[in-house]
Amino acid sequence: MAEKGEHTIKRVCVTGAAGYIGSWLVKNLLERGYTVNATLRDPGDERKSRPLLDLAGAQERLKLLQADLLKEGSFDAAVEGCEGVFHVAGPMGGASADDYIVPAVNGVLNVMKACTRARSVRRVVFTSSASATCPLDDKGELAHSCIDESCWSPLNFLKSQTNSTAWYMTAKTLAEQEALNYGAQYNLEVITVQPTFVIGPWFTNTHDLTSFQVISGLIGVNDAYYEVVKYIQSVFGSIGIVHIEDVSNAHIFLMEHPSAQGRHVCLVDFATIKSIKDFLAKQLKTSLKFHEEDSHNKYVPYSSKKLLDMGFSYKYSLEQAFEDGIECAKKYNLLNL
């Protein structure tokens, strides 16, 4: 499990285990010999729970528990006895900013309070998002020449926006700040991860996952998600990409690494929408519709130097991430071009 000098954590909790990152974390943790308490809003929903229960090692070392981000105390049973907690759960979708912000911030507090009460928890790894590292300032002007851990998304600028992506960015920023502040105040070791767009295969029965949404948006079959990708490029300057397995491995790496602390941007590469569409068109052997904004050329480089300097290495390239995502979408007959 852990090499000499690393944390020798054996039992962990994963919140939001039915989601894209959460499900992969459960899978990889079981493969590494961990005992896992995994939370879902409804463990009785076979569509969400069955793929997890069918994983290798699940019968012996996986326990599914019900928990709700908005209910204080609902994470107590899941966290009890765990040495490490991966807080992955977060709100997706909503009709207002509060639909994102309230469950994100309250959820962090509920999970952190459960960790404090449990007393067994040695470290929390919180899944934030690169959307919390926007390089603009409160006036919407470029304030950073590189996107790294020093960047915090400008809340005043985001409050002036009226789209759901800005609401999500606000929620992730506030939730991460809450997590880090709580850790500092209550002497709880909190590490945060900021993944960019997460691409690759999935093994759950649901397809409303980031990987397929991004791909479907870029190939022109999901206009709503194309707007999400377009907005991210407009405020970040490019699109960051990371493979789902690398994201999962980075979380576990940070749980085990003895000197890990603070924030960690997580991506393998970044590109414009146009360059990604060019690649996808070749992979799918089809023509894709291009828009003027696809060629956006105001690059602001992302940096994953902190993770790399700690000894982490990425297994998959940007191209491999999309190739794996496309193959999975074909497997589920989702690409009817």
Describe what this molecule looks like in 3D.
This protein has 337 residues and is α/β, with parallel strands linked by helices. It is globular, with a radius of gyration of 19 Å. Helix 1 crosses helix 10, helix 5 (97-118) runs parallel beside helix 7 and helix 8 crosses helix 9 (223-236). The protein has a domain at 11-198 and 242-266 and 300-315: NAD(P)-binding Rossmann-like Domain (Rossmann fold, 3-Layer(aba) Sandwich). The protein has helices spanning 20-31, 46-53, 58-61, 76-79, 97-118, 155-159, 164-186, 210-218, 223-236, 244-256, 273-284, 305-309, 318-331, and strands spanning 11-15, 35-40, 62-66, 84-87, 123-127, 190-195, 197-199, 239-243, 262-266, 269-271. It contains 13 helices and ten strands. The protein starts with 10 loop residues before the first strand and ends in a 6-residue tail after the last helix. The strands form two sheets. A seven-stranded parallel sheet has the order 3-2-1-4-5-6-9, sandwiched between helices.
Outline of this structure?
The chain has helices at residues 20-31, 46-53, 58-61, 76-79, 97-118, 155-159, 164-186, 210-218, 223-236, 244-256, 273-284, 305-309, 318-331, and strands spanning 11-15, 35-40, 62-66, 84-87, 123-127, 190-195, 197-199, 239-243, 262-266, 269-271. With 337 residues, the chain is α/β, with parallel strands linked by helices.
